[in-house]
């Protein structure tokens, strides 16, 4: 029984390492003909984004053609988001329903507005994000020609004077959203949707379950689309960047995501695996296997605690096999982190900051304590610097 428990706890470390190894090199995809892509719509959900929405609209409009559309959904706003977005040149719809808060409701409201003259393709960008030049057209092209859901590489910008713990969180974000997504794509897995930098053909978007207050609506939207029989593609040649949050806001953001992820993974993986086997879908099976990897800080804490327990078991006369398995898992996990840092992370994170990972783990300990005693259920907007 102890040996089985050790294997179960160790397994995510090996999965993580494999994804990192396969994700070290950039993923090359053939360039699609962008000029022939039919007009597409960009949908921007915005809640109290008056400070940033004008710059966001201007940046998005710079990539649009005359027949493309830009729709901002000013959702339950108590500021001038709607007026500022209109003045900046966006079409705007306003939604006021305090009882139903959350990004999913805003997206559903925007879909209803667009359905009057439905575009062939929808691109979703958060109000605090910037799309690298040409990114909107590439997202629309991938969704239109492939008739799949598409996720761009979504990263956090890194200010030169970033808080060290926030910088470590941003590095973990990069490992998840770039290195591991790239590894999953190279292995043939479905991508994880991440809320912004997403594109859909209208036939997929029109039937997607959007109107929820789910705190990880992006993850669960992807799971729902896979069960509907759709595919989800990740592309590297379209990148979306968002400003990092302050230390306090980073904790709030990670609490929301990691609480939602853990609950969703625990409830979704069995059904995903069964469905993948029945439908013979490797992409869906690999997606489910990826969900077995908990947030990295949480896994590190669990693995170290199990390693200590296995060591005590071994020195008190028990078998050393569980200790060996857990040691191997920790070694390959650390190796995966180091390889990801050498490949991508050292451009944004110094080695001096990287070695402070133990402090980062302690910083995140309250998140996991709250997961046990007071799990977050409601969506909260992340405040940006």
From TrEMBL:
Q: Which UniProt keywords apply?
A: Membrane, Transferase, Transmembrane, Transmembrane helix
Keyword Cell membrane carried by entry:
no
Gene3D superfamilies in UniProt:
Spore Coat Polysaccharide Biosynthesis Protein SpsA, Chain A
- Transmembrane feature ranges: 291-314, 320-342
- GO molecular-function terms, A-Z: transferase activity
Q: Which Pfam family, any one, appears in the UniProt record? A: Glyco_tranf_2_3
Keyword Signal assigned: no
The record's section on PANTHER family has: SLR5056 PROTEIN, UNDECAPRENYL-PHOSPHATE 4-DEOXY-4-FORMAMIDO-L-ARABINOSE TRANSFERASE-RELATED
Protein name, per record: Glycosyltransferase family 2 protein
Protein's organism: Sphingomonas lutea
């Amino acid at each position: 029984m102890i040996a089985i428990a050790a294997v179960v706890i160790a397994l995510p470390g090996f999965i993580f390492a494999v994804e990192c190894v396969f994700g070290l090199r950039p993923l090359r995809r053939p360039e699609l003909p962008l000029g022939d892509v039919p007009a597409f719509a960009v949908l921007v959900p915005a809640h109290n984004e008056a400070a940033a929405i004008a710059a966001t609209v201007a940046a998005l409009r710079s990539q649009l053609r005359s027949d493309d559309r830009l729709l901002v959904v000013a959702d339950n706003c108590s500021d001038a988001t709607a007026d500022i977005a209109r003045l900046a040149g966006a079409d705007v719809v306003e939604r006021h329903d305090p009882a139903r808060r959350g990004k999913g409701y805003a997206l559903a409201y925007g879909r209803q507005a667009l359905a009057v003259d439905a575009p062939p393709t929808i691109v979703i960008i958060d109000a605090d994000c910037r799309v690298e030049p040409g990114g909107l057209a590439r997202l629309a092209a991938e969704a239109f020609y492939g008739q799949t859901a598409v996720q761009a590489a979504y990263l956090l910008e890194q200010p030169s004077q970033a808080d060290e713990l926030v910088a470590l969180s941003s590095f973990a974000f990069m490992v998840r959203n770039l290195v591991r997504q790239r590894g999953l794509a190279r292995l043939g897995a479905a991508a994880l949707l991440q809320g912004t930098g997403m594109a859909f053909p209208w036939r997929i978007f029109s039937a997607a379950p959007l109107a929820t207050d789910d705190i990880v609506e992006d993850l669960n939207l992807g799971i729902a689309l896979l069960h509907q029989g759709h595919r989800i593609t990740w592309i590297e040649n379209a990148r979306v960047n968002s400003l990092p949050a302050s230390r306090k806001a980073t904790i709030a953001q990670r609490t929301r995501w990691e609480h939602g992820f853990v609950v969703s993974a625990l409830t979704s993986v069995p059904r995903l695996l069964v469905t993948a086997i029945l439908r013979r879908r490797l992409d869906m099976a690999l997606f489910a296997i990826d969900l077995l990897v908990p947030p990295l800080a949480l896994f590190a804490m669990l693995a170290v605690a199990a390693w200590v327990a296995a060591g005590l078991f071994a020195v008190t006369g028990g078998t050393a096999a569980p200790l060996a398995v857990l040691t191997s898992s920790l070694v390959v996990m650390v190796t995966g982190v180091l390889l990801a840092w050498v490949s991508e992370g050292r451009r944004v994170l110094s080695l001096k900051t990287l070695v402070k990972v133990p402090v980062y783990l302690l910083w995140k300990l309250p998140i996991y304590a709250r997961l046990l005693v007071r799990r977050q259920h409601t969506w909260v907007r992340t405040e940006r610097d």
